[in-house]
Amino acid sequence: MHRNAQQIALELLILRCQDGERSAWRLLIGQWHPRLLAHARRLINRPDAADDVVQDAWIAITRGLSRLDDPAAFRAWAYRIVSHKCADRIRQWKRDRKLEQSPNAVNPASPAHDPSMAEASDDDEAHLRHAIRALPPELHAVVAMHYREGMSLAEIAYALGIPTGTVKSRLFTARKRLAESLESYETKGHDQ
Question: Whole-prediction pTM value?
Fold first, then answer.
């Protein structure tokens, strides 16, 4: 795999962080915090929660960096941590929402909370998950690696042993099929 100067500089920076160099940590956080924050915002679409998620991710990154064997893997590893933290937060929200909707809940739902909207949102999410699972394996894998794992097209191409152009084509096809599925679902929902 061809590495450019930025990738090599990042690997050296990771090695410096693993050696405990504080200035390297400041530089790493300065360079990567905006990227990880943007990734979290794309995944959970709540800026305030994305800030919290990325803070949690930095704690995990700080604790786990010494165990990262390959400094070249930092990018995918850090994005994966943020993705997992976002998934944890979403699961927490779902649990909280279920507790709020429970008939035994101490506090009734707030006036701003509309249970029918939560049900619609849950239905939309369920339909999207179903549509993704219904994709052929080669398309499902590319979608999961790109969106769930936050991997670049080049990283996916390397991992799957296929050309980058094939990754682009598969991602385009998957997006098109998902859009068609969602459009069909929304049209059916509005006709009722």
Answer: 0.56
